[in-house]
Records
---
Amino acid sequence: MTLPLDAGRTVNVPFRAYRRLALAALRSLTAYPMSFAFSMLASAFSALAMLYLWRAVLSNGRASSGFDWPHMKAYLLVTFVANSLVSAYTDYQMCLRIRQGDIAMDLIRPLDYQRARFAEACGFGLYEAGAGIGAVAVATLIFGGLPAPSLRSFGLFLLSAVFVLPLRFGIVYTSGLVTFWTQNYVGVQAARIALVTFLSGSLVPLAFFPGWLRVIAGAAPFAGMASTPALIFGGQLQGAAALRAVGVQAVWTVALWLLARAFWLRASRQLTVNGG
Amino acid sequence: MRATAPKTHGPDLASLLSYGDIFDRRHCYIAGMALIDVSDLTKIFRRPQKRPGLLGSFRHLIERRFTDHVAVDHLNLSVERGEAVAYVGPNGAGKSTTVKMLTGILVPTSGDIRVAGLTPHRDRVTNARNIGVVFGQRTQLWWDLPVRDSLELLRDMHGIPEARFRRTVERLDAVLKLTEILPSTARRLSLGQRMRADLAAALIHEPAIVYLDEPTIGLDIAVKDQVRAFVKQLIAEGTTVMLTTHDLGDIEDICHRIVILDEGRLLYDGDLQAVKDNYARERTMHFQVATPITDPAALAVRLPGATITRGDSDREIAVTFDRLAIAAGDVLSAVFEHAEVVEVEIDEAAIEHVVRKVYAGELKLAAQRAKEAA
């Protein structure tokens, strides 16, 4: 049953393989529905707290930093869905496999490591986005409807939303690779979550930041992970400014992908697989 | 040490054709080169050196100290197409590290590896198509998916056409009895079932080279035998197999060549039978006799070179002899002349004894002696 070495097969891994991998990731989540439900519940509660908090702040009917209550509501709900993407599965699994040496089994597969992890993140993302949108639907029932964006804004919003997952993946994947050096991920993950939550504007909209910090956050990859699509959805970001923000997202998506790749090359030399 | 010079027989037309696609990709495959060629391979791990206790851990944060651990030390090895090589050595000898470098998982510190003309860590993805790997302590199955789905995922990754995939599954099923395990998820399998499924996963793309790293670890005798029979069949079909194991029973009837490694260095590389002939010549026959032997000295004279020892009672004797110098039949007839034999038992020298002696430093193999003399 031995075949000639690598006979008649193309070097490129068929796209189908990555699609199947994404579906496998999605299916593995459905194997533990309770665990997923609890993590959704946890983030839904923190979103709920944010909604109540901002409703109290904006209860006098006046707008603050360009946000009135309906727009703040829309902003918070969009960032909630954005935040649920590439939450913890990708890096959690990656780090566990790096620590336990099971990464060896990932490396004997004829797949590019980064693309394979991205495919899995997309699979998880389908589940996360679905659950997030469901939670938003429930929230709008409780807190009332959202301001409808214009058709043009909505189109731009969809475009902007597409970049959220790859951007977040870039950060999550790169921070996960730090495990090669630290062998422990808890601290790195906490730092990453704090940084992303703060600078992506999902804790406080960037409009509330001091000017200099707002400029930094706007130019960094983080705004594109939550703030940009949320502002476009609410109509606070329009026209040329919105296009420019989506452009920043696109540039960072490519840049983070390449940075992660360079990082992987260093990290893989660091690999030690202990025990069998 | 085994010579790495080209073998007298050049590659035949068929193997040249099969290397065709490697030529196409401009990898420098040289005709006549071994399938696996390792030269001067070294892997050094840097380990943090921490002083004991909490204070020691804190001190490590400020004053970082590391020690270098040489896992593989200037290893030279060459494996021809179709060979079955046993790769043995005590814990920490560097066996697994070698396999991880051969499969492209680990990057060597220095030295050169060629597997079918590829450098594994640089051409990892292409190399992965040529090889099948089983690490006995790990699984490559998707934990939450049925085994069948895992195999189908691998089918897509390797780009195997559906018809050929189905044929291979059928063939693997015949030996590995997959039917009962295909529908269950990997996490529900017993260790023996998991190992069969992992073997199937490693072989689903019909790789030309198979690395088995402790494939029988933790398995019961029955499953062990199944796995051994399966590996034997693989070798008979022409697959190149590199078998790493602690269980010397794995290699004895599977491999013709044995490579012994200790502390990252090659101790011995050669024919398994030659090792046995040279170092495992001792054979012991245990006799139970009806009446005590009256004249053991006379028996000793009859069997020069043999050692005769008395057993627990005076009705038991053991004769230890060089099996190449004295035939078992001669020993039998000699004992028959002196006593009425009730029971006979033969202890065959096993490769296990040799390897154990090598580990313990009691036995220096020829290659080792030559090295020390140099």
---
Amino acid sequence: MNKQKKSGKTLIGVVTVICVALIAFSIIFPEGTDPVSSVVRMAVTPLQRSMNRFGNYLSGLSGNLSSSASLKEENKKLQEKVDILTAENSKLVLDKEELQRLQTLLDLKNEYSDYDSVGANVISKGSGNWYNQFTIDKGSNDGITVDCNVMAGAGLVGIVTKVGPNWATVRSIIDDDSNVSAMVSTTSDTCIIAGNLQLIDQGTLSLVKLMDDNDHVHVGDKVVTSNISEKYLPGILIGYISELNNDANNLTKSGQLTPAVDFRHLQEVLVIRTLKNYVASTDDAEKDKAEREDSVKKAAKAQESEAAAQNQEASDTDLSSADVNAPAEATQDNGAEADAGEDVDVEAAQEAAQAAAQAAAGGQ
Amino acid sequence: MKRKLWLTILCIVTALLQTAWPSFLQIASIRPNLVVILTASFALMCGSRTGLLMGFGTGLLLDIFSGGTPGFYALIYAWIGFLMGYAYRIFYDDDIKTPLLLIAGSDLIYGIYQYIGTFLLRGRIHVFFYLRRIIIPEVIYTVILGVFVYQLNFLINKKTTRKYF
């Protein structure tokens, strides 16, 4: 007994040191422990998948017990909805055709609709109640990489944070650690959508830093991922504004947003394999163009000055060569002066340099 | 040797169940903490050494499965196992109150550790909200589930020990 207690104390010391070292190591080298965890997770993915399937089967059983009366009622409601949506859809198809026609006229490419994506099952949901991260059963074998966007149904679910051959970890947008750069679809005003554990009961996310000087944004407006985001593809639906208030600084607004996805019953998700190509965004393209124009101008100027310099060189060759050497000596002298004197200002230094240069030229 | 194998399998199964807990068994979107139940009950039944080793192993698996900082869970579960092991001397077969009390205390420690380690450090200071919404409900659910899971752990421990004392 006594011996066991003693070894227990030694052991807890050893274990504490190991854990602290591991934590420190993973903070210093964020990807240092990935190979080990990748192998272990690769091995348990089939287990997790089958356990999850069993859980879904059980939940399906409990779902089957609901009465047929409620199902009939629901069916009736859904039928009505189908009728409404069918009518709406036929109108939208016409609109879409018109849009395509106009887009071809204007030579615009349809950039939002055709992302390359792959479906995946949610097989594990983090370790406790504090985080909203989950694991899916597809990985780099299916072309998924870190920073791939994840969707379910109509809306954005989250982003891939870690990836292995047959698994990937996704941080959902309702996670307390998540921030998404977004914009209001009607006005293109940008804002940040931040997950907040304190809002989980309302089923909302917090919306902050909305720049809306003209008060055009209203409750109920659609919020999509912004085109200035580094990682999220533009135009993916996040949700609808459910509350909006002025901030204390009177410059920005904040509020709440109801997500478009039902995060409680997430089983299948869609991973978009197309990554946001941040460098090729339109802003940067414009910048590139401006830079190119600048460089052309500079080249022209350089040619001009070169021509002028050649003319001058022809007139006084000796002096220009002296000028080139002089400044180096001048700065050295100057440095010595600065060390000796207490506060030599820049102008004085320049004067001294010029004097030294003249002296050097005179000497030659 | 055989006992060690069984306990290892138990650790793996518990970590897997913890990460794959089905959503229809969540109450108010709260999951119970099975790893706390496992660690606290084995610490009570077998002492500090077994408790801290099982806590460390299961915590490390949990770290890997959930993709978090490795060592974060391992550290707290090892300490829970070690501290609860001091109750080994007051362990009786037919007593259910002590294990439940230990499980409740352990889960409370775990909740506070998790809050400080991952939320307070990011400036989320509403401690009472998190206590009321996450930590206390988790303790209650864990204790209720602990009534059954402790019995199961007790049986597994009894069957795998050669000499029944």
---
Amino acid sequence: MAGDAQRAFLDAEVLARLSRLTINACHPMLGDVAGPHRSATRGASVEFAEYRKYVPGDDVKHVDWRVYARSDRFYMKEFEADTNLRCALVLDATGSMAYAGRHGRKLDYALRLAATLAHLLVHQGDAVGLTVITGRGVRDIPPRRSPAHLRPIFETLAAVQPGGAADLPRALHDVAEKIRRRALVIVFSDFFAEAAPLINAFQHMRFQKHDLALFHLLDPDEVQFDFDRPMRFTDLESSFQLITDPALMAADYRREFDAHLATLQRGSREFGVDYQRVVTDHGYEQVLTAFILQRLRTATAAAGGAA
Amino acid sequence: MTLLQPALLWGLGALTVPLIIHLLNRLRFRSLAWGAMMFLVRAARSSTRRARLRQWLILACRALALALLAWAAARPLAGGWLGLTFGGRPDTVLILFDRSASMETLDPRRRLAKREEALRLLAEAGRRNGAGSRYVLLDSATLTPQALAGPEALVGMTAVRATDTAADWPALFRAALDWMLKNKPGRTDIWAVSDLQSSNWLPDDRAWGDLAARLAGFSPRVRVRVLALPAVAPANRALGLRAVRAGHTGAKCAVRVAATCQQAAPWPAKLPVTTTLNGQRAVVDFVSAAARDDWNQTLTSEQTAGWGSWELPADDNPRDNQLYFVYGGETPLHGCVVAEHPAAGRWLQLAVAPSATGARRCDLAAPDAAGALTAGTRGLIVWQGAPPAGPARVDLNRYVTAGGVVWFLPPAGGRGAPGTNGPADFAWGAVETAAAARPFRVAFWEEREGPLERTADGRNLPVAQLAATRRAALHELSPTSAVQRAAGWVTLAAYTDGQPFLARRNLGRGTFYACTTLPLPDWSDLDDGRVLVPMAQRMLEQGAARFSKAENAVCGEWRPASAQDIWTPVAPPGVSDPLTQAGVWHSGDRWLALNRPAAEDIVEPLAPAQVRRLLPGVDCTVTEEHVSAENGAADQNEIWALFVLLGLALLVLEAYLTLQEIAPPQPAGGAP
């Protein structure tokens, strides 16, 4: 079962190519074990972090005696700690994610992204958990770093049935509260909800010191809205129907749509959220490569700034 | 606004096409499960009003464009600046003006004579047309072109005064074409003013085909605008003279006058008719009960020659209420028979002059002596046999043109010699023999005038009892000129199968007659004289009338025999021109009474479509008077171009609105 699910989501060649890259956290993490990520605490790595004044109780082996010789003061030499991270993959599986254009369902695209990232993170020693938000409720799998943990994750992903409506901002708030320590939170959603509550949720995430990354999944039809005959639109999350000539409202639709995207992008930039807009006619490997490289650049820059 | 092709307004049904397409499109929607409904709902909320307005505008543009195109197809006319702007101003306007007696009929609403109403409308049209066009008048009475400063100048002109003549519209158009060929004007409009009286337009005249072809082929293009005043005055009565016979009893003279009273909508009435005989007036009551009443009266006068008149009470056309007559003087009733068949010749001689005594005389002559026949005071020449050719033909033509009457009968032996050069453009064809016991019968004949008209006391000749066992075909030869075409043979009596029994062709002041059977026992029972004698006598009287000292003629057709004759008006007061005005005239010991042509009393206007059909291929518009009076449509022009332009403008606007709607979408974003 897990094998089938794995084969459905994962492409071995893509994984082989992407596994050469490390998925970095852009912010310091608090992990359980040593790992490739910068920790929020000082540790015993060889990379110097900073000096601080000696306080009674400190281990004298970290006193920098050379500085004491020069200044007659005790300074403690601290080093960066390297840790693993805990990653929470949050998948929006509400009805709107089931929209299938010419390039398939947005949900399927999101499943491929989530599964690939889960595989890569686990294999670089990080813990990965999964939260699936549907109209019928929220399904949680806590983060673990064991490769065997991928099995329930893939099974859960394989079993996802999109449908219904959910309060996405509320669900994100819950996720932010539920993860106690800093974590990398990656959300896969079309974010078809009011922008302000969503940005509040992002802010909450960041307040909790989580490193938040968003994959904003959009179908080309939703972006372009280019229909040439009257249509009956049926809402995927409710039974609401609207019969209209798309040509009549295309301009207004695009204006509303673009304004929503711009608001989300602005909110993400304001709170340091890694925002990735993904149109499903692009290959997911490209999208993930760009995502990983961008995070690498951000992490490197953050580390340089701290030194 | 007037429409030339109102039937095409059915095209307005095309208005529903955009609506139907719109509704069909609404029904042809596609279903789609959609995720981004929140944006769609917001867009629908904000764009509904604007989009609906635009949609309605597009729909209105499409529907209006179709309506305008349908309207343009119906060829609208407009006067005033609209018509002038989009119809263009002609270089020359030829005004063909109907001065016939029937144009004096009062308009039932305006109480103005049609002629005066036409002058008013023309003046109005001239004002609208503005300066820049040259105006030329051609009136029906003189056919003489006269340059005008403008239609306003028509009022008060002698050339547009009332006459007692008939109008000859083919001749008017022919005169207009002749003027155009001679003067070579630029773009020309012909404004024809008429009451569309059928007897004036002569719709059966074959000259119309030639005229239409010449007008259609004229360069630059000629437009014909007919201002029609066809309103019929139902209360109008017209009085016409049928015959005058004068008999002398001792020193007194009994004058028997036969008149006809016609009216469009008959109703019984006792009419006080004022009769005048040599200035003595009397009032006689006549009963008018039918559309046509024949009235007879015998008056006695001390004078052996004189004049008289009858006058009806005033009605809707004061011009047709009078008749004039003159009587008196001995008229030499001399005839001549040229016959190849002796028996037929003898019967015909007896018919012309039943008694060798008295004023009537008839000679028998051989065909080769025809040259001498036309001399003297012979009023009638009866020609039985093949029509003459060569000099005899020329002599007969000249004789008839001067007012004589020639009566042709077929050769007794069958088909005659080819008559290609015959004097009346006809030839005798094969002789047809009726089946046993089924002789040829005459089913139709002209009983109102001509040789077969009713008797003075109103009784019909026994033409229906005539039985012919043999008859010859009458072939009309191709005329060689437009004049000949215009004056072709007219059937006065026809057999049951439509073949002519008696036909007539007028030439100049005289007439040719042709009868297709003979007064011989093996041809017909014409020899019993009941029909033959009145026919012959009437033809003789008609031909001899020119030698009479008292001539009752038709105004417009009468021409003075000599330019030196001076005719003095006797009645009514104020008349001055015997060529155009009815009345009594006097010259030396001769009397002349002129009356309106009988056809002027028959009110049968053509329909506008009939007039248009006379000029196929010509840009011809017939505008009825009631429209003109209200809208000043005398100078109406076609403005379909305006409608087409408006329609195209609406289609451009529709295209702009539509293209705005389907502007290519701007990409909202993409992959990083």
---
Amino acid sequence: MRMLRQFAILLAREVESLFLSPLNYAVITIALFFNGWSFWYALQQYQGNVEGAVRFFFGQSPLVWLVIVLVPPLLTMRLFAEERRSGTLEMLLTAPVSEIEVVLAKFGAGLAFFCALWLPSLLYLAIVKSYGAIPDAGSLATSYLGIFLVGALFTAAGLFASSLTSTQILAAVLATVFNLLLLVVPLLSQMVQIEAIEKFFVELWIWRHFGDSFAKGLFDTAHVGFYVVLTGVILFWTVRSLESQRWR
Amino acid sequence: MKEHATFTRGRRLAIGLNVLFVSLLAPLVGGLLLYLLFRPELRRRFDLTSRATFTLSERTVKVLASLATRDEPIDIYTCFRPSYLSDSGVPVPGLEAV
């Protein structure tokens, strides 16, 4: 009970600092512009086929993936790096809270902000619905779940990068490179022409896990587990990285 | 009385090695979990599309069940679209050559 209360206090502190940061509103504005443009483009391309447009918007649109890849590092870059630079990380670590609570609170806040970024996309669907086109509710639900899970993975990666350095920009660059590697390496591995390497990287390809289930309207426990396990491993590394402050 | 440092270099090294070992162990445990999750016996799929687009119809299931009881060999013809992309636009490994 005490742990939960401490976690709630930490979470509220992090959420407040994220939602009060002007930089994050600049990020959200750019992301909304890209999302809106992408949805408009999808509707144009599919000439009124709402189902196809929605599937393109969530699963294939490069602009939407750009938002998914770039926004979490920008949101999380300051979470640990800024605390380390300003010297408040020592205070936080010497307070009667565990590293796990600190990491989970920062992760929860980052993910909450990422989810808030996607709320306006419900408006696009409401507009489309007002014209009489009804998108498939099941596909929509799995697409949002997919975006939530990818967002969680990238938020964890951003948090881990932020725990490694005291420079915000370096943290953002590290996390972006990691996210891009998860997207691009499987494509590059096909050039190697070695089946085992190709297979290994294709298994790790987050776009494939997204496109093969969530974007289609399928809820697949294996694909959900893939994102949850990867996020868990990265969060575990973040806790270890934070713990290392005590003995380094 | 002489004081002895408890947080020695050796101790720091031991903690560091422990952290390194545990950090390397985590992806291995994750890999094992993923292996289990992708096993067909544990994997569950739910088609949430309103028209059950990715679910076999009852008739198809009946046809497939009847095939299992046949003794003579069955010829199977598969048709591929001239694309190695899946419905969601993701390349399917192994179909590039088709």
